[in-house]
UniProtKB/TrEMBL annotation:
GO terms for biological process: polysaccharide biosynthetic process. PANTHER family: DTDP-4-AMINO-4,6-DIDEOXYGALACTOSE TRANSAMINASE, TRANSAMINASE. This is dTDP-4-amino-4,6-dideoxygalactose transaminase. It comes from Spirosoma fluviale. Belongs to the DegT/DnrJ/EryC1 family. One of its GO terms (molecular function) is transaminase activity. Signal peptide: none annotated. The lineage of its organism: Bacteria, Pseudomonadati, Bacteroidota, Cytophagia, Cytophagales. Keywords: Pyridoxal phosphate.
Length: 467
């Protein structure tokens, strides 16, 4: 232990002098092709020894980060203005064009645009016949937008703990959660890193469960060169403002199953026959539906964003690989792991685990404050979703009381059965995120992130003696 500590300290001292970049040159060389960046800002012993910004020193970075969303009037506005001037604002040809391009981009047969990712999941669940009385397996490490749709259909979310190395639902924990009520699994490609689809699909097949991929953060991510969202019975995407393809609000369901997609179309338009859109009265409504239609101007914004998505995704992958290679050697910093079969990630977020023991016990909260003060925006990410009051609220409703035995609805018992210790550790102690717009910066920007972390590492004792 002391030997280890010494060698790590030695490592940092050495790199303060030579610069991390020099040590990591091979990784740098393999990961730089697309970022087109300038010379890396190597840390010097003096910049690491500068007082911490949180304690009044000069921040590592004072420049702005790339803004999001991106809008380039010259190339983005032509079609949008045409739509606005046409007066055809409700769903018509531009939405269809966006759907066709999204399907082609993913290499999937069909795509249906809807109002947001949450409703994409609601439509998919409803048309795969997930109902009150069913159980749906979900990871706890996700946005509420994964779980709210399960409750909206009247089904019971059952939480499957994560693999902390990948931040994804751990397939090894799935089978223990399957009961006679289990109907579906929702793997979430959380943070834009692909979930372990081959293993999840095999388990689903064995137990005859439907699979709905929540790919709301994972635009263009791939497993063995196949886009995520195209593995399951359905894939759901979000185009909310923060997402890697931003429309403000918007979503899509994708699938290769024509009959399912026809039903989703009907469902998103009151249950009226497939292909029928706005302005039709007395359509001969066929199935129970609701209204989730995207507008023409939203689709025009989506088409403009779609033109840049592939190049942006490449930049994020390049910068993420570079940053990961630089910070993984800092003690106490454990970056995400990708499964071996991942050929591309989306990096909606860049995650790592912060292990305070290596930072002399400096709490994550203080580390985040110090990092933000150095000009590096960061977040601790999700709170635990598997024990919040919204679940109890659903369980107290008349529908849940009718559809489930009392014992299943006892909130204390539910929270105990759905305890996910690995997720608790990520949420409450270890996870740290950077947002996707930061990964659109240059390699020098990534160097500043790494330098700021290293600066805090070398001076953690000063923060501790402060408080
Ligand atoms: C954003 C998101 C959703 C919901 O999408 P909206 O478009 O915001 O409704 C669902 N799941 C995950 C994982 C998300 O990140």
């Amino acid at each position: 232990m002391p030997t280890n500590k010494f060698s790590r300290r030695e490592f940092i001292r050495r790199n303060s002098l030579t610069g991390l970049g020099a040590v990591l040159a091979p990784a740098v060389l393999t990961g730089t092709s697309a970022s087109g960046s300038s010379s890396p800002a190597l840390p010097t012993s003096s910049s690491l020894a500068e007082p911490l910004a949180l304690l009044g020193g000069k921040p590592i970075r004072s420049k702005q980060w790339p803004v999001w969303p991106i809008w380039k009037p010259e190339q983005d506005e032509k079609q949008l203005l045409e739509v606005i001037r046409s007066g055809i604002w409700s769903r018509a040809t531009v939405v269809s064009e966006f759907e066709a391009q999204w399907a082609a981009t993913l290499g999937v047969k069909r795509s249906l645009a809807v109002v947001n990712g949450t409703n994409a999941l609601i439509a998919a669940l409803a048309q795969l016949d997930v109902r009150g009385g069913d159980e749906v397996l979900v990871p706890p490490y996700t946005f509420i937008g994964t779980v709210a749709p399960v409750l909206a259909t009247g089904a019971m979310p059952v939480f499957v703990d994560v693999d902390p190395e990948t931040f994804q639902m751990n397939p090894a924990n799935i089978e223990a959660k399957i009961t006679s009520r289990t109907k579906a699994i929702i793997p979430v490609h959380i943070l834009g890193l692909p979930a372990n689809m081959p293993q999840i699909l095999a388990i689903a097949k064995k137990h005859n469960l439907v699979v709905i991929e929540d790919a709301c953060q994972a635009h263009l991510a791939e497993i063995d060169h196949q886009k995520v969202g195209t593995f399951g019975d359905a894939g759901c995407f979000s185009f909310q403002n923060s997402k890697n393809l931003a429309i403000g609000e918007g979503g899509a369901v994708v699938s290769n199953d024509d009959a399912f997609m026809d039903r989703c179309f009907s469902y998103h338009n009151y249950g009226n026959p497939y292909g029928m859109v706005s302005g039709v009265i007395g359509a001969g409504t066929l199935i129970q539906g609701t209204k989730m239609r995207l507008t023409e101007y939203q689709a025009a914004i989506g088409l403009a964003q779609l033109k840049r998505l592939d190049a942006e995704t490449t930049t994020r992958n390049t910068n993420a690989a570079y940053l990961k290679a630089k910070i993984r050697s800092i003690p106490g910093i454990v970056p995400y792991k990708l499964y071996d079969n991942v050929t591309r990630a989306a990096f909606h977020l860049f995650p790592f685990r912060y292990q305070k023991e290596a930072f002399k016990g400096l709490p994550r909260e203080m580390f985040l404050k110090a990092l933000a003060a150095e000009g590096i925006p960061c977040s601790k990410g999700y709170a635990t979703l598997n024990n919040m009051p919204y679940l109890d609220d659903a369980f107290r409703s008349k529908n849940y009381q009718k559809m489930y035995p009392k014992a299943m609805l006892n909130f204390k018992g539910y929270v105990e059965r759905n305890h996910c210790p690995q997720n608790d550790r990520l949420c409450n102690e270890e996870a740290v995120w950077f947002t996707q717009n930061m990964l659109l910066g240059t390699q020098a920007d990534m160097d500043e992130i790494a330098n700021a972390i290293e600066k805090i590492y070398t001076q953690a004792d000063k923060l501790l003696s402060q408080k």
